[in-house]
Amino acid sequence: MRTMTRLAAVAALLVTLAGCREVRINSHSTGTTIVPGGNQVTVVRNRHELDNLGIHDPTVRFTHEFAVVLVMGPHTQTGWRQAVESIRANEQRTRIVAFERAPADGGEPAAEYHTYTLWIVPNSVYRKGAVIDAVTPDGVVIASTVLK
What we know:
This protein has one domain (22-146). The protein is of the alpha+beta class. The longest helix is centred in the N-terminal third of the chain and has 19 residues, at 2-20. It is built from 2 helices and 8 strands; from the N terminus they run αββαββββββ. The radius of gyration is 19 Å and the shape is globular. The chain has a 4-stranded antiparallel sheet with strand order 1-6-3-2. The termini are far apart.
């Protein structure tokens, strides 16, 4: 009987902790792309949408996961790159703190391009109405979107 009570207590604790956990999101890839427009946070649900962003990443398995892409720019000098300071996520909101670093040498003239960071996220954490914000370290909004 004592063992059964102990197992029930452990199970209740695990269920409680699972309900309180934060969602872990890890960066998958970074790079540059040629896409029109300015800064944007885009939720990508299929390969065609990813190709439209000019990103070719065969590791995203869209049957089990989706991608979130932060696009920043445009730039006309080589060498720009994104730096992600932190990501905090829960069931209602994801806040990405990011900025871009200019090239140390000033860069060379280049055709207009954007930098991007792509994250792969399990479909199990997709919540309609959840907000994804990308902000600077000072809190200025870079881009924002709502999951539909």
